[in-house]
Each structure stands twice: as C-alpha cells, then as structure tokens.
Design goal:
The chain is α/β, with parallel strands linked by helices. About 35% of the residues lie in helices and about 20% in strands. It is elongated, with a radius of gyration of 20 Å.
C-alpha cells in the first residue's frame, strides 16, 4: 500500500521538472483527490492509502496543465472562482487592480468590467462594495458562462449584468450609460512573447495577445473610456510590467491623468485614470 505521504513525496519529485512549486502542487492535487482541504490533508491524512484519482491529476500536471484548471477553481482576493480553458486564470498580480479600484472609488454605485472573463475582478468589487451594481462585458460567450456561474455561486447574480460585447466593434457602448468605476484587464502580451506552456497551451489566446508590442487593445479601448465615465468617474487598467509609460501616453492622449500602482513584487501593474481638468 502506498500512503498519501509517500505518494506526495514521489509526485513532488516528478513535478519538479515542470513546476517551481512542485510540493505545493502535489499537496493541492492530493487534497482535491481526497476531497479535503490542504490543512486537513497535512494534519490528518498523510498515513492514509493514496487515492486512485491522484495519479491522473499528476499526469495532467506533468503535461503542464495548470493546477487551477485541474482543480477547476482558483482563489482570488479570498474567494474561490471557477476557471477553465475559456478564461484566464485569475492571478495574484490582478489583486492590485482591485486594491487600486477600491482606493480610487470606494463608494462606486455602477461598475463596468471590460473583458470580464471569469468575472473575478467585477464580482470581487461587487462583493467588496455593498450596494454596487456592475456590468461585465466579454466577446466570448463561453467566458460569460463561466462568469455567470461564479456570480451565482457568490450570490451576486442580481447585481451583475453580463453582456456579450467587443470594444473592437462599433456600437458596443450603446445603452451602457455611464459608470463611476471602470476596470479592465485587456490582452497585453506581445504576439512574439514566449509564454510558459501552462499559459500558452491552456489559456485563451484571444485574452492574452495584443499585437507586436502588446498595446493594440489599449489603443482601441482607452480612447472610448471618457464617454463611459461620469464626471468623477475613474478607470483602472491592468498593464504589463514594462507598459506603464506607453499606456500612460495613450491615456494622456485620451484626456486622462494617470497614477501608477505596483504589485506585491514591486512591478508596475495598474494605472488609475482620471479625466484631466484642463
């Protein structure tokens, strides 16, 4: 009989070739196979027989499938969100966008999320701002289905209006109105960038790549934002770590003043945009 502890040791050794967090990955997959929390696994279950399903999870991870997709969920800002191949997996870096939005507009009444994906940004803000309502747009029906499931699970369906829309298409803003707070995590990866297989092979390319310099979507979206914001409205954009100056310049040309916020690793991650007074 192979015990849970022995299976964890062997899996961590195998996964070291594909993951910088091999032991942690193995523990999450084992907890999932057992149907318990990671804490329960480590405190009480290491001497149990290893479950049959664990090996299949390890094989999937060895093929570079992200742990979040194997589990079908990812924690973001203290809440679990359903994920899959149709949406970007929420990342801790994006929590900077939430923190910047709450700082800039803590009493927002209407929130717009451009490119909502799993709904992680929009639904987190609705959960953090009591009474706020929001609209989440995405050009992917499959992504909107994931966002709708997350809204239902979090009890936010009545406050989240999820719509099929594409900022590259004329008329997408029709009937949206104006918002106190707008957030966006648009595609911003250069088309020639070398991404890890766990991202390149398992996450939607349309939500990742944005032209040779990664700025195509900012060039299209940002000039359309002033009409979507009320007089005191604020927009918060996620950016790549090297894009602060370029996106700030695009924003300035659209009539915005920008403030930069860094993620926990100290990298540029979010721009807060306010309409210039002049």
């Amino acid at each position: 009989m192979t015990t849970v502890g022995e299976a964890l040791r062997d899996a961590a050794s195998l996964l070291a070739g594909v993951s910088d967090t091999a032991r942690f990955d193995a523990e999450l997959l084992m907890a999932h196979a057992l149907g318990v929390s990671r804490s329960e696994l480590l405190l009480r279950r290491t001497g149990d027989p290893a479950p049959d399903g664990f090996e299949a999870f390890v094989i999937r991870r060895l093929a570079h499938e992200p742990v979040a997709q194997i589990l079908g969920r990812k924690e973001f800002y203290g809440r679990d969100f359903l994920v899959g191949r149709d949406v970007l997996t929420p990342r801790a870096d994006s929590e900077t966008v939430v923190a910047a939005a709450l700082e800039a507009c803590p009493a927002a009444k209407r929130v717009l999320d451009c490119g909502t994906g799993s709904g992680a940004l929009l639904l987190t803000l609705l959960a953090e701002i009591p009474g706020a309502t929001g609209v989440g747009i995405d050009r992917s029906p499959e992504a909107l289905a994931v966002a709708a499931d997350n809204a239902e699970r979090l009890g936010l369906s009545a406050r989240a209006d999820l719509r099929l829309a594409d900022w590259w298409q004329p008329g997408w803003t029709d009937a949206l109105g104006q918002f106190d707070l707008l957030i966006a995590n648009p595609p911003y990866v250069e088309t020639t960038a070398e991404l890890p297989r766990s991202v390149r092979d398992y996450e939607p390319a349309g939500a990742l790549y944005a032209g040779p310099d990664g700025l195509d979507d900012y060039r299209v979206l940002v000039p359309q934002l002033p009409a979507l914001l009320g007089p005191e409205g604020v927009a918060v954009l996620e950016i790549g770590a090297t894009q602060a100056d370029a996106v700030g310049s695009i924003a300035a040309s659209a009539g915005f003043h920008s403030e930069l916020r860094h993620d926990l690793a100290g990298r540029p991650r979010a721009l807060i945009l306010r309409k210039s007074c002049d």
